[in-house]
Amino acid sequence: MKVITSIKEMQKYIKNQKNEGKTIGFVPTMGYLHEGHLTLMNKARNENDVLAVSIFVNPLQFGPNEDFDSYPRDFNRDFMLAENNGVDVVFHPSTEEMYPNKMSVTANVHSRIDVLCGRQRNGHFDGVATVLVKLFNIVQPDRAYFGLKDAQQVAVVDGLITDFNFPITLVPVEIVREEDGLAKSSRNINLTAKERAEAPRLFESLQMAKQKIDEGQRNPKVIEDLIQAHITTHTSGTIDYVEMYRYPELEELSELTGKIIIAIAVKFTKVRLIDNITFDV
Ligand code: AMP
User: Fold this and answer.
1) In angstroms, what is the span from residue 72 Cα to ligand 1's centroid?
2) What is the sign of the dihedral through the CA atoms of 144, 61, 190 and 32?
3) Which CATH number describes the domain made up of 186-280?
4) What is the residue extent of each domain of the chain?
5) Are 185 and 195 in contact (CB under 8 A)?
6) What angle do CA 47, 49, 52 make, to 5 degrees?
7) Gap from CA of 37 to ligand 1 centroid (Å)
8) Domain 2-173 classified CATH 3.40.50.620?
9) Mind listing the pLDDT tens digit for each residue in 129-174?
10) Which residue has its alpha carbon closest to ligand 1 atom 11?
11) Which of 22, 43, 130, 194 fits a disulfide with 17 by CB distance 3.0 to 4.6 angstroms?
12) How would you classify residue 153: left for phi > 0, otherwise alpha for psi between -120 and 50, otherwise beta?
């Protein structure tokens, strides 16, 4: 497995692979890899000749009061996991390599961001879109793999690829969970033991909501209240949002039919957790 830290070198590597007619599968990550990432990698491994993974904690997508500094990092651990999971090349640039100067041109996301994390995290998706424009130009993948844990990100990347005409197929991948239901996340390590014990209640609340809908409940307010009550009663977290939309459009639901997403964000002491379920009503 190759580890490349320079943009020029990465572009040269990719050019050589493409000259040999190879297809490139790409998994962008912020590292501290877990089974969620590995699932994306395994899928990409099976569908492409070359598997490229980026590990870069992108400062542009963190707000001033967010967890950029405390975001977990362990490159040696990531290296071993990547090597054992069939990765051909890890692109691991420094912040200075990616942003040597203040950007003179950045990407602005206009739709699908006035809800969920987009509303809570001002500028977050502009930062995500900007780094992806750079990474897509550096890695030039045929297919790019993104997890539905970040369902709004998938919706935004879908718009980015379409509007900027990237010749890339977006491959969304289902959420990978711990045995107790907690969605796997690099950030879970920053939960206290008590918070970690409470955290499965998030997914539990989503499952209860789905069950109520399956039983015929069609009032979004009743569903949202049920989730709020469950999380408030059983966890010490503070709810950032509980929202339901049509998916992937992220439009208001005039009635509860079709494909929908129920998404939540809950703040704990050092971590803000997100989770969601998407299903057909
Ligand atoms: P991150 O390193 O958190 O930026 O995540 C990199 C990619 O892995 C993103 O596309 C995430 O949506 C995806 N991902 C993270 N956690 C999970 C999970 N539990 N299940 C599926 N995909 C995930």
Assistant:
1) 14
2) positive
3) 3.30.1300.10
4) 2-173, 186-280
5) no
6) 90
7) 6
8) yes
9) 999 999 999 999 999 999 999 999 999 999 999 999 999 999 999 9
10) 147
11) 22
12) alpha
